[in-house]
């Protein structure tokens, strides 16, 4: 009985010892290979598009068919069936990615909402985890600069190249060598490739919005790219810190 | 020094975590600490508006009877209130600062849990365990 008590005391004492504000373990810094994130992102966009299309297309046929619904009915429809009824997406389960950006703008809008929301949740947690542990961020410009330097350094191992502001609530962040675009190349040239890369910057939009929202700054973040590998994020402050 | 209560309020001053270490657990003590937390928030707002230092640790906010109340603000808006019974010996602010940093680190781990409900009260057995341990370590 005493042994059990002693064990729980030491276990919880180790709990306190393991706490540290900068996330360093007693074993040292815990790190993850950055390529894992790049691979995840490229698959995330593709998978979300396919699954959103699947659920949309799935709900349409379920309404039309008068067969009795069974458990097996969902699995019977494979991804290989999807291209026959899709509107412009030509992809097969073997090849990841698509040849054309899906024409269905409603589909891409749903994908945008999902990606942005995922990014928002990620941003909130990043903001909590990596807030400067010994100083307060006072005004909005301070917070945006924190995003440019620290958050970008965490995610992409580099800082934003150019920050412009009109001091009235609009900030423009310019990244000339956006990490996730470095491995993308379009064989059709600049504009088409830029259009196809569009979904991949929706997630960072959400992340920026999540980080700013955590610090009390309500914003709308829009991203655009004029030519790979450059991209620009425009932050419009809606409610201030 | 004995820790009497640890409370966490969110950006809208709504208490999301309240933990009291009184031996006699009755409704009076819970209400008392809620009241203390709310009055401390006013002091926090005033302190944050006036001070030029950008420290997260706000120091001694107020003393009520035999209780001393300390405050700590997070960058994401949450406020941590620590109520201790006034000790005979002098309390070093470094010790209080360290307690706050431990609570902060545990809070970060709590928030980063993707299964955590962001809007409601903070419910986490691990966080409770850490807070209990803090209360136990500093109850001499």
TrEMBL record, chain A:
<dbReference type="InterPro" id="IPR037992">
    <property type="entry name" value="TRAPPC6/Trs33"/>
</dbReference>
<dbReference type="GO" id="GO:0030008">
    <property type="term" value="C:TRAPP complex"/>
</dbReference>
<dbReference type="InterPro" id="IPR007194">
    <property type="entry name" value="TRAPP_component"/>
</dbReference>
<dbReference type="GO" id="GO:0005802">
    <property type="term" value="C:trans-Golgi network"/>
</dbReference>
<protein>
    <recommendedName>
        <fullName>Trafficking protein particle complex subunit 6B</fullName>
    </recommendedName>
</protein>
<dbReference type="GO" id="GO:0005801">
    <property type="term" value="C:cis-Golgi network"/>
</dbReference>
<feature type="signal peptide">
    <location>
        <begin position="1"/>
        <end position="18"/>
    </location>
</feature>
<dbReference type="Pfam" id="PF04051">
    <property type="entry name" value="TRAPP"/>
</dbReference>
<keyword id="KW-0732">Signal</keyword>
<comment type="similarity">
    <text>Belongs to the TRAPP small subunits family. BET3 subfamily.</text>
</comment>
<dbReference type="InterPro" id="IPR024096">
    <property type="entry name" value="NO_sig/Golgi_transp_ligand-bd"/>
</dbReference>
<dbReference type="GO" id="GO:0006888">
    <property type="term" value="P:endoplasmic reticulum to Golgi vesicle-mediated transport"/>
</dbReference>
From TrEMBL, chain B:
<dbReference type="InterPro" id="IPR044760">
    <property type="entry name" value="TRAPPC2L"/>
</dbReference>
<dbReference type="GO" id="GO:0006888">
    <property type="term" value="P:endoplasmic reticulum to Golgi vesicle-mediated transport"/>
</dbReference>
<dbReference type="GO" id="GO:0005737">
    <property type="term" value="C:cytoplasm"/>
</dbReference>
<dbReference type="InterPro" id="IPR006722">
    <property type="entry name" value="Sedlin"/>
</dbReference>
<protein>
    <recommendedName>
        <fullName>Trafficking protein particle complex subunit 2-like protein</fullName>
    </recommendedName>
</protein>
<dbReference type="Pfam" id="PF04628">
    <property type="entry name" value="Sedlin_N"/>
</dbReference>
<dbReference type="InterPro" id="IPR011012">
    <property type="entry name" value="Longin-like_dom_sf"/>
</dbReference>
<comment type="similarity">
    <text>Belongs to the TRAPP small subunits family. Sedlin subfamily.</text>
</comment>
